[in-house]
Write a sequence for this structure.
């Protein structure tokens, strides 16, 4: 625990001191905020039209702010995370390897697991800041309308779990190489393939299709965005995170043996 | 304090170190001497638990490096060759981080950090980021991070490499002051440095230990095969002939010509120091002797000798 405290404060400090975290957080907030502006403005136009023209209203069905704004907002936040989080995780081990600080870090009395969890928690810290900065958008929805807060809560739980999966995968990729660009490229590639695997589920065989659908990393977010916290989805993200943290540990260990 | 037994490390097919056995007693300062790629860094990385050995065992501060790696790591201080530091941290912040990881009790961390900063002469750099420091000061930060947990064993990989002469002197005197009960193992490829700091020297080449002795013994064994440099004013051919006739002279060469005087190098055979015979030979020829210097053997010479076992019999 003690080691984790020191590792975590060091990680957060170096994120704050380097412009990377600032840039990532800013871009993330701008993109999600811009998208929110568009869907929220669109929703209010639709509402006005529906008010003045009952015939048109039928066309849209029930105008529900949760359906029209909150849910799409969560899927876009998930998509932007897929782009931004690898930029946050790419440096974690790659930078330490490149600059050689890894040599000192691994000769301090801390276990490999602590070193990895320290990195993981550091990234999670920055990620939580990113997520918190999206909340004003939803607070605005709450100010002007009546969204379902349960759905918003479930959505955030889902995003947090999905983010931890992205981060653990990014950290693993970063532990494989000392080149940050390669680490980021590997993370993007594997996240995008995991994202798309749901698409091929439609024409794969029945059983394979089910597997592909379950593997697809973003499918699980949809249930959260509907306000459902399903243990199967929670397990998916937790197992995913645990698997990649474990693989990172193996990766560090193999480095010790290979020299 | 350090006991190494039959340690071997292979990288794929290449051998990093091959069957190395040695031990270092408590409070001893051991020099690890060798050319680049000899296996110095590999040995140190294994002893500091950064890498695992392929075979063999080692104990540091009483703990096995493989079985009790965490305990070993809390007892040592390590300064890697390139002194990798987090450039985006301020000096005391960095040292507090290291002290925290190295199990310094909470309450003592601030005190301990101030103490090592004082010890290595960093106190006036407290507000600076490590990235802003010069190479010499970074070396001090490296030493400070190694010392912050009061280690029983200090492992320093080429502590003076890349420093200017003034900094080298400062760092050497710092290291010298660190002894006193502490076991120090330092690597270098500069012979005078090692002979100045260390009580015992291990010479390693191509992953194997080639010689292990006190610096004095090593030097005297090598001085037996001494070389002398002489600047003589006289006709070259005649001087060469006269020098060759000195008893024990094995090889005479002209190394440089500058107008009237020429520089000669006379190499004496094993066990026959004959430098005192040169002035007589010169004056009896009627020439002038401008300079007579015994040549310090460079590490390269020692290596060639030790590796080929031409002059030294173990």
């Amino acid at each position: 625990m003690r080691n984790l405290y020191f590792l975590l404060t060091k990680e957060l400090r170096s994120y704050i001191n380097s412009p990377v975290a600032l840039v990532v957080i800013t871009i993330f907030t701008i993109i999600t905020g811009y998208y929110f502006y568009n869907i929220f403005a669109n929703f209010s136009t639709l509402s006005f039209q529906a008010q003045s023209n009952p015939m048109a209203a039928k066309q849209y069905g029930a105008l529900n702010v949760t359906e029209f704004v909150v849910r799409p907002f969560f899927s876009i936040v998930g998509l932007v995370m897929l782009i931004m989080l690898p930029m946050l995780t790419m440096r974690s081990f790659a930078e330490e390897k490149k600059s050689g600080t890894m040599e000192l870090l691994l000769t301090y009395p801390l276990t490999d697991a602590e070193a990895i969890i320290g990195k993981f928690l550091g990234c999670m810290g920055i990620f939580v800041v990113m997520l918190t900065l999206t909340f004003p958008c939803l607070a605005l929805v709450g100010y002007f309308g009546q969204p379902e807060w349960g759905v918003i809560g479930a959505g955030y739980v889902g995003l947090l779990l999905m983010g931890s999966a992205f981060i653990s995968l990014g950290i693993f990729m970063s532990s494989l190489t000392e080149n940050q660009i390669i680490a980021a490229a590997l993370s993007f590639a594997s996240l995008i393939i995991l994202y798309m695997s749901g698409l091929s589920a439609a024409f794969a065989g029945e059983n394979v299709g089910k597997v592909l659908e379950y593997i697809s990393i973003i499918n699980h977010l949809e249930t959260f965005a509907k306000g459902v916290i399903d243990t199967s989805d929670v397990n998916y993200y937790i197992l995913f995170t645990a698997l990649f943290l474990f693989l990172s540990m193996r990766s560090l260990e193999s480095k010790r043996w290979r020299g | 304090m350090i006991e190494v037994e039959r340690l071997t490390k292979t990288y794929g097919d290449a051998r990093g170190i091959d069957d190395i056995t040695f031990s270092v007693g408590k409070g001893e300062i051991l020099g690890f001497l060798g050319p680049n790629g000899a296996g110095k860094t590999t040995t140190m990385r294994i002893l500091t638990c950064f890498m695992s050995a392929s075979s063999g065992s080692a104990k540091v501060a009483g703990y096995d490096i493989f079985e009790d790696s965490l305990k070993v790591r809390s007892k040592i201080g390590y300064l890697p060759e390139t002194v990798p530091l987090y450039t985006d941290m301020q000096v005391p912040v960095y040292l507090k981080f290291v002290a925290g990881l190295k199990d310094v009790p909470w309450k003592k961390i601030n005190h301990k950090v101030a103490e090592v900063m004082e010890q290595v002469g960093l106190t006036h750099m407290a507000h600076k980021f490590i990235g802003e420091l010069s190479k010499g000061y970074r070396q001090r930060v490296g030493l400070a991070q190694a010392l912050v947990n009061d280690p029983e064993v200090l492992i320093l990989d080429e502590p003076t490499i890349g420093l200017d002469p003034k900094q080298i002197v400062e760092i050497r005197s710092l290291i010298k002051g660190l002894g006193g009960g502490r076991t120090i193992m330092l690597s270098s490829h500069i012979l005078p440095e090692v002979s100045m700091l260390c009580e015992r020297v291990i010479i390693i080449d191509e992953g194997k230990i080639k010689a292990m002795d006190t610096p004095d013994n090593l030097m005297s064994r090598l001085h037996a095969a001494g070389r002398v440099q002489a600047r003589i004013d006289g006709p070259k051919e005649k001087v060469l002939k006269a020098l060759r006739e000195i008893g024990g002279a094995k090889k005479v060469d002209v190394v440089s010509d500058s107008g009237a005087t020429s520089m000669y190098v006379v190499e004496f055979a094993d066990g026959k120091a004959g430098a005192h015979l040169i002035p007589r030979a010169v004056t009896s020829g009627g020439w002038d002797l401008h300079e007579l210097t015994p040549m310090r053997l460079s590490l390269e010479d020692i290596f060639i000798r030790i590796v080929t076992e031409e002059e030294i019999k173990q």
Remarks:
- Residues 223 and 229 of chain A are 7 Å apart (CA to CA).
